[in-house]
């Protein structure tokens, strides 16, 4: 991790802990979130996002953390898909290439939402798996689907590449899709972390 990110993490943790000093259980949860987020590619975003939904992480364990991260990713991917779809109705004067790029983006974001939705359910089932092989199979499904969802999100941006596509529309969509892709990337990292730790305990 870059030194400046480490400094920001320390400052962020200090702020969070000060705000939750009256509730020891919450302070422990915040430390757990910060430590776990260091396994992700975007740790600052990870801490900021998960701390806002800390009440969903009831048992302070890796599965709850991954489940929450996936649920947030699903929610934000769905919101962005709706936002992009509205653009075609509210801004009818698109150039043909812009319109086609947005149309393709809507399709791949829809795929991303579907895959993340599947992943949230499958991760819940994996947590209740008794047999090691069943757990590994379900986690493999989750990892495959979340990875595919991340690919879908980045594919959306590919359609806006090139100078001809520079403009307000590209900036609006890029800003929102990049954020969702980063949230999804973090969720995938936490899923992988949970899978690795749980697998190590399987005989």
From TrEMBL:
UniProt keyword terms in alphabetical order: Signal
Signal sequence range: 1-22
Family matches, as Gene3D superfamilies: Invertase/pectin methylesterase inhibitor family protein (1.20.140.40)
InterPro entries per the UniProt record, alphabetical: Invertase/methylesterase_inhib (IPR035513), Pectinesterase_inhib_dom (IPR006501), PME_Inhibitor (IPR051955)
NCBIfam families per UniProt: PME_inhib
Molecular function via GO: pectinesterase inhibitor activity
Entry protein name: Pectinesterase inhibitor domain-containing protein
Pfam families: PMEI
CDD domains per record: PMEI-like_3
Family note: Belongs to the PMEI family.
Organism: Brassica carinata (Ethiopian mustard)
Record domain Pectinesterase inhibitor: where: 28-190
């Amino acid at each position: 991790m870059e030194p400046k990110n480490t400094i920001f993490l320390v400052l962020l943790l200090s702020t969070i802990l000060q705000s939750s000093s009256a509730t020891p259980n919450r302070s422990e949860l915040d430390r757990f979130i910060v430590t776990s987020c260091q396994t992700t590619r975007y740790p600052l975003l990870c801490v900021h996002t998960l701390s806002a939904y800390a009440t969903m992480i009831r048992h302070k364990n890796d599965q709850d953390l991954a489940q929450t991260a996936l649920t947030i990713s699903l929610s934000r991917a769905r919101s962005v898909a709706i936002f992009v779809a509205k653009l075609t109705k509210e801004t009818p004067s698109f150039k043909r290439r812009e319109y086609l790029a947005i149309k393709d983006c809507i399709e791949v974001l829809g795929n991303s939402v579907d895959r993340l939705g599947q992943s949230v359910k499958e991760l819940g089932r994996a947590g209740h798996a008794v047999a090691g092989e069943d757990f590994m199979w379900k986690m493999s499904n989750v990892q495959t689907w979340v990875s595919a969802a991340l690919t879908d999100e980045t594919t959306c941006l590919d359609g806006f590449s090139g100078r001809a596509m520079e403009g307000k529309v590209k900036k609006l969509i890029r800003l929102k899709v990049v954020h969702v892709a980063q949230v999804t990337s973090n969720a995938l990292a936490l899923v992988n972390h949970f899978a690795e730790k749980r697998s190590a305990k399987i005989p």
